[in-house]
């Protein structure tokens, strides 16, 4: 099995074949995004409280995205941040109807 860029190219070809889009325009960019910060934090017994503290301590008055594992978790996290932490949030996931996907 090929490694490195050759393997990535095979994955791209597989995805394009699975999507079945005729003559797709493929735009490729580096994952090196110095303007973005990625951080993965281990889950604790009280993950929402941990998230609240992280946002207050490290990201006060900044914008960001919180990724969740399920649609219901997006709703729960957004509700917690809005109601309990007074941090304005909206949630987004693929299961939303077209209208709620448009930001207010």
UniProtKB/TrEMBL annotation:
InterPro entries membership: P-loop_NTPase
One function term, GO molecular function aspect: four-way junction helicase activity
Domain of life according to the entry:
Eukaryota
Note whether DNA-binding occurs among the keywords. yes
From the UniProt record, give one GO term of the biological process aspect.
double-strand break repair via homologous recombination
Keywords from UniProt, A to Z, are: DNA-binding, Isomerase, Nucleus
One GO cellular component, as annotated? chromosome
Q: Which family does it belong to?
A: Belongs to the helicase family. RecQ subfamily.
Q: What is this protein called?
A: Helicase C-terminal domain-containing protein
Gene of this entry: Vigan.04G154300
């Amino acid at each position: 099995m090929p490694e490195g860029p050759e393997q990535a190219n095979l994955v791209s070809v597989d995805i394009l074949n699975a999507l079945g889009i005729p003559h797709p325009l493929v735009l490729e960019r580096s994952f090196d995004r110095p303007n973005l910060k990625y951080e993965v934090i281990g889950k604790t017994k009280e993950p929402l409280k941990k998230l609240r503290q992280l946002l207050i301590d490290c990201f006060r008055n900044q914008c960001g995205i919180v990724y969740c594992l399920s649609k219901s978790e997006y709703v729960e996290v957004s509700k917690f941040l809005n109601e309990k932490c007074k941090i304005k949030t909206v949630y987004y996931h693929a299961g939303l109807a077209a209208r709620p996907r448009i930001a207010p």
